[in-house]
Design brief:
The structure is a single chain. This protein has one domain: Rossmann fold (3-Layer(aba) Sandwich), CATH 3.40.50. Helix content is about 30%, strand content about 20%. Strands 1-2-4-3-5-6-9-10 form an eight-stranded mixed beta sheet, with helices on both faces. It has a two-stranded antiparallel ribbon with strand order 7-8. The radius of gyration is 17 Å and the shape is globular.
């Protein structure tokens, strides 16, 4: 299944082009993909979530069809500022913002910088917690030169499939599309800069997040343990979490129906607190 290109739009923000997919009407829902991925990651949930929401899924700088400038500052602060510009240009006053893994760290940074634009927050197998020195992020040591490790089709595919409980969850068409997007000119270099600019993606101020927050976690996540979900709940005051059984690090790709059910319940205030 591929994202329908008729829903893809582009906008110029300063010197940078941002590509995004948009569909539906109603409350605005913005979803942010992880590093080493693109908006295509939300292909399985895009149409369904757009039935009840104005769904916006951007390609972050350095990914997909957006600008891939090696001169861009790929820090979470700069990415959050660009996201704020995007919402302003689209005349969006308030949105539910969600992100996967490093996209979750970006979503947290965005709500801390632009709280007035955020109604609710969704963190999906998210980074943001402190990672001890010598521990890895994405299974790679922080600051590692990634071009030598993730520059070939085989190494990229091995990493992508490692995020699923079962490799059988990803069909041939999806694998080829992933490689096509990840091997575009300058994507590996930009991905490296993004990971290196943010070290372990720690969000020290997450205890200051005051928005209703949903933590969604794949029970079989091999990259970030499910115990991290409970740590997020302890740190973010107005939060609750849901484990998606038999899903790995990308539950929206591996268990899209369960993921959509959980998100829609949260948007309707149907998921109880764990406090």
């Amino acid at each position: 299944m591929l994202m329908d290109e008729k829903y893809r739009k582009e906008i110029k923000l300063g010197r940078y082009k941002i590509s995004y997919y948009q569909k539906g009407r109603g409350p605005v829902l913005v979803l942010l993909h992880s590093a080493l991925n693109s908006a295509h990651s939300f292909r399985h949930v895009f149409d369904t979530l757009a039935l009840t929401n104005r769904l916006i899924v951007p390609d972050l700088p350095g990914a997909g069809f957006s600008s891939k400038s090696i001169k861009f500052d790929y820090s979470l602060d700069s990415m959050a500022d660009l996201l704020e510009q995007l919402l302003s240009e689209l005349k969006i006053r308030k949105a539910v913002v969600g992100g996967v893994s490093s996209g979750g760290a970006l979503a947290q940074k965005f709500v801390l910088k632009s709280a007035g634009k955020v109604e609710k927050l969704i963190l999906i197998d998210s980074l943001g917690l402190n990672v001890r020195k010598n521990k890895s992020v994405y299974g790679l040591p922080s600051g590692t030169k990634l071009l030598s490790q993730l520059s070939t089709p085989a190494s990229l595919m091995k990493f992508y499939l490692s995020q699923f409980r079962s490799e059988e969850a990803v069909g041939i068409e999806d694998r080829m599309k992933y490689l096509d997007l990840m091997l575009k000119k300058s994507v590996p270099e930009c991905s490296q800069k993004f990971l290196q600019a943010n070290l372990n993606f720690e969000i020290r101020e997450m205890t200051e997040i005051e928005k209703p927050t949903l933590i969604v976690w794949g029970e079989r996540d091999k990259i970030l343990p499910k115990s991290a979900a409970e740590k997020f709940v302890k740190k973010i005051p107005d939060s609750r979490y849901v484990m998606i059984p038999e899903a790995g690090h990308l539950p929206h790709e591996e268990s899209p129906e369960d993921f959509v059910t959980v998100v829609l319940d949260f948007l309707k205030d149907g998921i109880p607190y764990h406090k």
